[in-house]
Design brief:
This protein is of the alpha/beta class. Helices cover 42% and strands 17% of the residues. The chain has an 8-stranded mixed beta sheet. Helix 2 packs across helix 3. The protein is globular, with a radius of gyration of 21 Å.
């Protein structure tokens, strides 16, 4: 009997319990698919849950979760946070940073010497090592240990960090790349002059589901139309922009459109909008899907998305999406699916939302088109075949 192939995933956090995020979800789901395909799967990660503090909250050691052997390693405690933030602020402003400063930034980022030691000692036993996202020093240093068998799932955005020399070195040193969507692949090929024969677009699969929007609306007492946003509330995700735009839309249009939020993080709505925001916090997957199904549209104002699981979920719930045009990936999905609209500024936001609010037949057709797109391109059998081809 043939020995099953062995693979290690390397990522700063593992999606379990309160740990949330698109990249963590992506990595776990891909690992689960390989377990189903008969691979032996290890997942090397840190003991951290909180992506702000990076404190070691999970005991170090090994746990088997959904057939995955999850190895938890402690985050190094000797990082100089002031140095890290000082250099990061300069990178964020596109200020000139030397190569030595880039390396100093990595050394004071999230690292785990215990994880590196394990990978140096045991990495030879794996057929493939898959790691990401690109922005973490953990991935930067781990990619240098066995580059000949390492594939990078970068979750790349067109942002200041993508232009660092050390990031280009990492991309060019590994054996291949797995991207979530064609625009992400094209960006990486442009930035780093990659050999695209070693670049594969895989993405993440989704299971079809039933959602009951009417039931959700009744449970919540929502009688007026609403937009929904799910995920982290922070400037990088564009939530302050969404709050400002919806407040202005309500004033200019006179339409009583509410906002439903699920997920985590603080938010500070304009005074006039505050009574019209329903913050549900963390909810079950079914509750989130029901909320999506009952919405006028799912609005995703982020410009930093390499895939966007939530807009695909919204389409499976039968709901169209409204996304920011500055990020290439989400408008790409909208154009291919005919399931959403996109905006670059407030006038375009207003025009798009007015169209969705006043044309129910169009809304329904867009939601259905998006659902067909997800089932055709992002069902798990289709994605699993792409993943196995990439690993081969």
């Amino acid at each position: 009997m043939a020995t099953p192939p062995r693979i290690a995933f390397v990522s700063p956090r593992f999606s379990e319990g309160p740990t949330v995020g698109g990249a963590e979800t992506l990595f776990r789901r891909l690992a689960e698919q390989l377990v189903t395909a008969g691979w032996e799967v290890d997942y090397l990660t840190t003991c951290a849950r909180n992506h702000f503090t990076w404190e070691n909250e999970i005991p170090s050691g090994i746990q088997t979760i959904a057939g995955i052997r999850v190895h938890y390693f402690p985050v190094d405690s000797n990082r100089d946070l002031a140095t890290f933030l000082g250099i990061q602020n300069r990178i964020s402003r596109s200020a000139e940073v030397t190569l030595e400063e880039e390396l100093l930034w990595h050394r004071n980022n999230v690292n785990s010497q215990a994880l590196y030691k394990y990978l140096r000692a045991e990495g030879g036993r794996y057929d493939r090592i898959v790691m990401g996202p690109y922005l973490f020093a953990l991935v930067y240093f781990a990619s240098q240990i066995h580059p000949e068998k390492t594939l990078l799932i970068p979750c790349l955005h067109d942002e200041c960090f993508a232009y660092l020399r050390t990031v280009e070195t990492m991309f060019r040193s590994v054996s291949g790349w797995i991207f979530n969507a064609e625009p992400e692949r094209d960006l990486a090929a442009h930035l780093y002059k990659l050999n695209t024969s070693r670049a594969h677009v895989v993405g993440m699969g989704l299971d079809d589901f039933k959602a009951d929007g009417e039931s959700f609306r009744k449970r919540m007492g929502l009688t007026m139309p609403y937009l929904i946003y799910s995920g982290r509330r922070e400037p990088l995700k564009g939530t302050p922009l969404l709050l400002d735009y919806l407040d202005l839309f309500r004033e200019r249009s006179g339409l009583d459109i509410k906002l439903v939020l699920t997920g985590s993080g603080p938010y500070d709505p304009p005074i006039r909008l505050a009574p019209h925001v329903r913050d549900l916090g963390f909810v079950s997957e079914q509750e989130k899907r029901d909320a999506m199904a009952g919405a006028l549209a799912f609005c995703h104002p982020s410009v930093n998305e390499s895939f966007s699981i939530v807009i695909l979920e919204s389409w499976l719930a039968g709901t169209p999406v409204l996304v920011h045009a500055a990020g290439e990936v989400m408008p790409f999905h909208c154009r291919k699916s005919k399931g959403g609209l996109w905006f670059r500024n407030y006038p375009e936001f207003e025009e798009s939302l007015m169209l969705l609010a006043t044309k129910p037949e169009l809304r329904s057709a867009m939601g259905q088109a998006g659902g067909r797109y997800v089932r055709e391109h992002y069902s798990w059998p289709v994605v699993r075949a792409r993943l196995l081809a990439a690993l081969a």
